[in-house]
Amino acid sequence: MTLPQIEILALLVVALVLFAWGRWRHDVVALAVLFIAVAIGLVKADEAFAGFGHPAVITVAAALVISRAIAGTGLLDTMATWLASRARHPALLLILLCLPAAFASAVMNNVAALALIMPAAIAACQAAGRSPSLALMPLSYATVLGGVITLIGTPPNVIVSGVRADKLGQGFGLLDFAPVGIPVTLAGVAFIAVLGWRLVPQRVAAGRDDHGGVQEYLLEATVEKDSPLIGKLLGDVFAMIDDHDAALLGLKRGSVQIPGAAQWTPVREGDTLLIEAAPEKAGAMLKPLGLALIKPGRDVKPENKASDLHIAEAVVRPFGGIIDMTPAELRLRQRHAVNLLGVAREGSNRFGGLKDWRFHAGDVLLLQGEAERVNEAIGALGLLPLAQRDLPLRRPGNLLLTLGIPLAGLLVLIFELAPAAICLGAAATLLLVTRRLSLREAYQSVDASVLVMLAALMPVGDAFDSTGTTGLLAKLLVELSGEIGPIWLLGLTLLLTMWVSDMVNNAATALLMAPLSIDIAKQINVNPDAFLMAVVVGASCAFLSPIGHQNNLLVMGPGGYRFGDYWRLGLPLQAVVFVTSMLVLPIFWPL
After folding, report:
1. Which of 318, 416, 389 is nearest to 359 (CA)?
2. How far is CA 285 from CA 273, 392, 454, in A?
């Protein structure tokens, strides 16, 4: 083994450990790995940023823009809501939610498909008197599986196609993945609907109210004549109450209702403050602040709250801009006139005492304020709203144009009249030119972290190949497997890809395993396409933990799941996918 091979293997191990650890974002890890590779001479300095112009990066970016345009039509979530409203039995409910989500993921980014259908799924579960936990994990897995069906369904498919083009001269077509992807997706959804849902822990109460149970912690308190709050501005009072691990929501003065966001309003004797606090915190807070409870122990009903108390739940997206920030750093009241009432993580709610809280991906934020302000804050912070949205369909002509442009691009791609980057890039540009999508929406739809990670790891992947390390590992795997035969080696490749994908990002998995699978096929002199398809399926089988795929993280908070919950459904689902894949791969991609 040469020194460059030892260096690239050591760098690979470090990268995998950092990806699995999750302490730093995947794009930061990828950039660090790239610069280390340049520093030690594995990647030439003038080739370090060649990945940013790679067709695969352009294809992924264009697919994300097209996904945003399709999502903007409101067609998908309207259809999902209509279907789910006709189901009460868990099996039928999951089929009507998961199948549209899975096949939507075939033509749009699977994160976008989940974001569209998740509010409908929560509403459908509430209407059926069932826990949202029942549907959210299956929905995440269904959208991940659906991405296997087409080239643009998920970034790993684009990566595998790009590797094939680089090493074998031509990439995969748009629908080359479908003969394997469709049976795998149908088998996975069928298992989830018939048996798998029984394995999902239901940690969120069935039929919970639309406000996340916050009214159990709302108190009305009168400002007494000797209260130190008298004469102070509402903004200062908010800070004083916050010191007691509580939150001020608003003020009532006779028939006048004043929102908590009105920071410059002075407090008077006899004013009624509406305060959110855990019951055990209320007693210690009232006497020092000169407050008296009105009918202690009485719940404040939503209809009795101040008119500005619009409450909404929203999820922190993976790689979101507020990750590792504290509520104080967000300055929600100052910037958006919105209160943060509480945060839920892994099924546990936290109200008050949020000063030192640091947000993680999958956290559910409970926000309060004027409806328009809350919606603006959700958009500005890059959160995923959980409330059912009323998205009006566009006018028929515009709807046809919005859907027709991507369809035209896909048809050109199907008939292989132009490369994927050109077809999808032109379709995305045409959507902007015809104003089916604003420039701001287009830039918001592009997940820069994914693009940076892909672009940064591509030169490292080339170094992995050019140093002969890929061939060395392939030879080692073939020798270790002995005389088990090509079909068993194919299964081993699939299992290995599944294992890696459960620990690290699926795109990074594809970048690692695609070149390796080609070299394994060459070592035993069989068709490399079967092995590449095994990588495609395995990279989209990150079901054992929330860190393998962004969708798993997105449902963690709303579903109340814990880290160890995912394998309960994920492990048998991986077995179903493995058996189905091993049955169909030799048929459609003979060895």
Report:
1. 318
2. 13, 46, 52
Distance CA 414, CA 409 (A): 9
Interatomic CA distance for residues 249 and 309, integer angstroms: 8
Closest Cα to residue 419, out of 409, 428, 429? Answer: 409
- How far apart CA 543 and CA 566 sit, in angstroms, is 6
Cβ atoms of residues 474 and 458 within 8 Å: no
Per-residue pLDDT reduced to its tens digit, 282-337: 667 788 888 887 654 444 444 444 444 577 888 888 777 888 888 888 888 778 87
Of 316, 318, 317, give the one whose Cα is nearest residue 26.
318
- Which two structure tokens, joined as six digits, stand for 222? 């009168």
User: In the sheet that 383-385 helps form, which strands lie side by side, from edge to edge?
Assistant: 348-351, 339-345, 364-369, 310-316, 383-385
Would you state the structure tokens that stand for residue 581, as one six-digit string? Answer: 């894949």
Q: How many helices (H) and strands (E) does the chain have?
A: 24, 10
Please answer whether residues 224 and 289 qualify as being in contact, where contact means their C-beta atoms are separated by less than 8 angstroms: no
The tokens describing 202, both together, are 């239901």
Closest to 344 in 3D by CA, of 384, 379, 315, 380: 315
Nearest to 385 by CA among 403, 371, 399, 406: 371
Is pLDDT larger for residue 393 or for residue 70?
70
Which residues on adjacent β-strands are paired with residue 248? 275
Q: Which residues contact 459 (CB under 8 A, 6 or more apart)?
A: 34, 37, 43, 47, 48, 49, 50, 51
Q: Which amino acid is at 23?
A: R
Residue type, 84: A
d(CA 25, CA 38): 20
Which residues fall within 8 angstroms of residue 555, CB to CB, at 6 or more apart? 114, 118, 136, 137, 139, 140, 362, 561
pLDDT tens-digit series, residues 536-546: 999 988 898 88
Q: Taking the alpha carbons of 212, 217, 221, 227 in that order, is the dihedral positive or negative?
A: negative
Choose the weakest-confidence range: 54-63, 132-141, 455-464, 473-482. 473-482
Distance CA 498, CA 521 (A): 18
The DSSP output letter for 393 is: P
d(CA 205, CA 553) in angstroms, rounded, equals: 20
Specify whether the CB–CB gap between 460 and 41 falls below 8 A. no
| Element of type H or E holding 350 | strand 348-351
Phi, psi of 384 (to 5 degrees): -105, 115
Angle separating helix axes 155-168 and 55-72, nearest 10 degrees: 150
Has residue 213 got a pLDDT over 70? no
Q: How confident is the model at residue 262 (pLDDT cuts 50, 70, 90)?
A: low
Say if residue 247's pLDDT is above 70: yes
Q: Is the pLDDT of residue 489 over 90?
A: yes
What value does the mean pLDDT take over residues 43-49? 93
Distance CA 507, CA 318 (A): 14
Long-range contacts at 428-431 (CB < 8 A, ≥ 24 apart): 428/61, 428/62, 428/65, 428/66, 428/69, 430/405, 431/65, 431/66, 431/69, 431/402, 431/405, 431/406
Residue 532: the pLDDT is: 97
Helices (H), 467-527: 469-481, 486-503, 506-523
pLDDT in tens, 495-522: 999 998 888 888 889 999 999 999 999 9
